[in-house]
Design goal:
The protein has 380 residues and is an alpha/beta fold. The chain has helices at residues 15-27, 34-47, 58-68, 86-93, 113-119, 139-149, 200-210, 218-222, 242-273, 286-289, 304-316, 341-349, 361-368; strands at 51-55, 76-80, 97-101, 103-105, 108-111, 124-130, 152-156, 164-165, 168-169, 176-180, 193-197, 297-300, 350-353.
């Protein structure tokens, strides 16, 4: 009998999450309300930010952030191409143009500040850093560029709740930062996202735009704090639900141990693949792993052909893999674009291996068995 499918990722849910959702249902108030506000406050404290604004997704959070920064047609935002398409789409929703920057190297697949420097022009209004795989970008260098050119600095921290850089936690390093709580993320609510910021003006605008530009919410009216409302700006329906907020509160309490387990699993992968050039390498290093949220486990293989061989062997062994990411600058909707050779080389050779807190050590060993016997030396 063949082994069960080993998924790429899986949420860590228990009875606490079940009860939290049941409490919301019993309350009969499902849309954005007191649990959302409580989760926002707790999350802001966790990342070391003064404010947090929950949204229906990270894409919505990014759009709210760019809209609150007053981006529009004729403006440009520099973003990495090695990201999910939502990063660039959220810029484009405002009418602004995403300008794609290369990464530092396959060993450090984060937006390259020197590449960013070369792209800054008279239309540039912001830089958006993506903390790929849960490793924080060089925010000091990017902040220096932003300060020098009077630009906003945005963190796409979709991979990064609990990650840290030398300057502090992800979510506290930009003018505004955005997180994802999608089902494959480190903190799972199914859908949902969060923006964090110390800028009270940006936060007020994001809150206004989140709910149609209305001056009062449904919860305000339910409590008798408002009898009507005005619409002062064209906003969006980016409100989260109380169900997502309730899940988020429980998941946030579990996040420290889930992060620790992710780091243990990454260490096991590194030991198993050490010194085996035919297998490839895991980007970054052990020192950075301790500061990372270790969202995904990327392996950079020696060639595109080697990557496809790994994926075929994994599929045969019922092990799910993926690719993070197809470069956004290559998608039809953003054509034409100049080549980004480092990003393109990385994307041809990268394969994402399973990583989630509920994995056993034996699950990692099962993945390592895809590679030569020498790749498994020193795992125990």
């Amino acid at each position: 009998m063949s082994e069960q499918q080993l998924p790429l990722s899986a949420p860590s849910f228990g009875e606490e999450e079940v009860e939290a959702v049941a409490e919301v249902v019993r309350s009969a108030w499902l849309t954005m309300g007191p649990r959302t506000a409580a989760f926002e406050a707790r999350f802001a404290e966790f990342v070391g930010s003064r404010n947090a604004v929950m949204a229906s997704s990270c894409t919505a959070a990014l759009h709210l952030a760019f809209a609150a920064l007053d981006l529009g047609p004729g403006d440009e935002v520099i973003v990495p191409s090695l990201t999910f398409v939502a990063t660039a789409n959220a810029v484009a929703y405002t009418g602004a143009t995403p300008v794609f920057a290369d990464i530092v190297s396959p060993e450090r697949p984060l937006i390259d500040p020197e590449a960013v420097r070369a792209l800054i022009g008279p239309r540039t209004k912001a830089i958006c850093a993506v903390h790929y795989a849960g490793y924080v970008a060089d925010m000091a260098a990017l902040r220096a560029l932003c300060d020098r050119h009077s630009l906003a600095l945005v963190e796409d921290a979709a991979h990064s709740p609990g990650a840290r850089g030398p300057e502090g936690p992800a979510g506290s390093l930009g003018d505004v930062s955005c997180f994802s709580f999608f089902s494959n993320k480190n903190l799972v609510t199914g859908e949902g996202g969060m923006s964090t910021s110390d800028d009270d003006h940006l936060v007020a605008r994001m809150r206004l735009l989140r709910a149609h530009g209305m001056t009062a919410t449904s919860w305000d009216r339910e409590r008798g704090h408002a009898s009507g409302y005005d619409v002062v700006e064209r906003g969006y329906n980016y409100r989260p639900s109380e169900l997502e907020a309730a899940l988020g509160m429980v998941q946030l309490g579990k996040l420290p141990w889930m992060l620790e387990r992710r780091r243990e699993l990454v260490a096991r992968y590194r030991r198993g693949l050490a010194g085996v050039p035919e297998a490839g390498f895991i980007p970054f290093d052990e020192e950075l792993d301790r500061m990372s949220s270790c969202h995904i486990l990327p392996l950079v293989t020696p060639s595109a052909e080697a990557r496809e061989a790994v994926r075929a062997a994994a599929a045969e062994a019922r092990i799910q893999t993926s690719v993070h990411y197809q470069p956004v600058h290559g998608f039809k909707v953003f054509q034409p674009q100049a080549s980004l050779p480092i990003t393109e080389d990385y994307a041809r050779r990268e394969v994402t291996l399973p990583l989630y807190p509920a994995m056993d050590d034996a699950d990692v060993d099962r993945v390592l068995a895809l590679f030569p016997v020498r790749a498994r030396a020193g795992v125990a």
